[in-house]
Amino acid sequence: MNAAPDETASDDDPSRCALIICTYRRRAMLGRTLRSLAAQDFDRPLRVIVVEKDAPSPLPAPEDAWYTLDHVRYDGPPSAARQRNAGLDRLPSDAEYVFFLDDDVTLRPGYLRTLASVLDENEAVGGAGGLLLGETRPDERGRAARLLRRLFLIDHRRAGRVLPSGKAAPVQTAATTARTPTEWLSTCSSVYRRALLERHRFDPAVPGALLEDRDLSYRISREARLVVEPQARLVHHRSERGRPDVRSYAYLDTVQRYWFVEKNVRSPLGKAAFWWSILGRVLAILASQTPEKDAALDGLRQGVRAVWTRDDPLLR
């Protein structure tokens, strides 16, 4: 267990930190994540802000927690963006680095220390992320699939690239073996300078938990460097509880990606790239052997219709 960091600040102290976790009806998994945090060797004051939708009761910190825990009840509509903004509203005034984690992770030793040191070492770096162990790049699924994904602007040979179609090449996977520049970061594993988050917040228009982190990090990447540090690692247990089904995901991915393109892609080819990627997605679903093929196609069809008619609150 860590000794509690000295709360007396001086000009020579390392940057103080806060960490935001959003959760909803996953207390058991959240408890494992908080215990994992308690096992970290980290010599800086840390405020852990847990924003829980419809919290049923107060949330106690683990017995061996060396950090301070701030439990925030969120009663608004389902929106990871709004939950995280509620966490940002509770930042202590002296926090300079802000971490984000999902509620279903286990940190490997040295995770917090390693990511904080990335920001310490270079003021030009505005944010950093670690590796999400257990997740793979599409590259690992075969050469033919990789080439088709690149052809239809669903993936890119350069990890971390955000494409004009709104898709993004994975970068926080075990395939990344050296510190790598990126245009986006997952809020499952990231840290940003607080000054950047005062200028860039999560877009509250985004419902659910899809693309809100790509939107934020891509905007920040235009102002400051983002990197992935492979020595900072966590295991993402990726619970399916609370996640959309295949039909809903296909719909949301279509609508919210189009929204992302309209908002963020400066190229005049952005919308053409989006529709080209939709064609690739249709062909991939048709060629797949999944028993949920019909549901995926139906969700995609509904999403295309919503985009074409702008019949979704996000597009109005």
What descriptive keywords fit this protein?
single chain; 316 residues; alpha/beta; 2 domains; 9-stranded mixed beta sheet; 9 helices
What does this structure look like?
Strand 1, helix 1 and strand 2 form a beta-alpha-beta unit. 35% of the residues lie in helices and 20% in strands. The protein folds into two domains: 187 residues, Spore Coat Polysaccharide Biosynthesis Protein SpsA, Chain A (Alpha-Beta Complex), CATH 3.90.550; 70 residues. It is built from nine helices and nine strands. Strands 1, 2, 3, 4, 5, 6, 7, 8 and 9 form a nine-stranded mixed β-sheet that branches. About 2% of the residues have low confidence. The protein starts with 15 loop residues before the first strand and ends in a 7-residue tail after the last helix. By secondary structure, the chain is an alpha/beta fold.
The gist of it:
By secondary structure, the protein is an alpha/beta fold. The chain has two domains: 187 residues, Spore Coat Polysaccharide Biosynthesis Protein SpsA, Chain A, CATH 3.90.550.10; 70 residues.
Please outline the helices and strands.
Elements: E1 16-23, H1 27-38, E2 46-53, E3 68-74, H2 80-88, E4 95-101, E5 105-107, H3 111-121, E6 125-133, H4 143-151, E7 180-182, E8 189-193, H5 194-199, H6 212-221, E9 225-236, H7 246-264, H8 270-287, H9 293-309
Parallel strand pairs: 1-2, 1-4, 2-3, 6-9
Antiparallel strand pairs: 4-8, 5-9, 6-8, 7-9
Helix pairs in contact: 7-8, 7-9, 8-9
CATH top level class name of the largest domain: Alpha Beta
Considering the protein shown, what is the CATH homologous superfamily of the largest domain? Spore Coat Polysaccharide Biosynthesis Protein SpsA, Chain A
**Over all CA atoms, what is the radius of gyration?**
20 Å
What is the tally of helical segments?
A: 9
Low-pLDDT stretches are 6-11
Helical proportion? 25-40%
In the CATH hierarchy, the third-tier topology of the largest domain is known as Spore Coat Polysaccharide Biosynthesis Protein SpsA, Chain A
Number of strands: 9
Number of domains: 2
Distance between the termini: 51 Å
* Structural class by SSE content: alpha/beta
Shape: globular
User: Approximately what portion of the residues adopt beta-strand conformation?
Assistant: 15-25%
CATH architecture designation of the largest domain: Alpha-Beta Complex
Average pLDDT level: 92
Order of helices and strands: EHEEHEEHEHEEHHEHHH
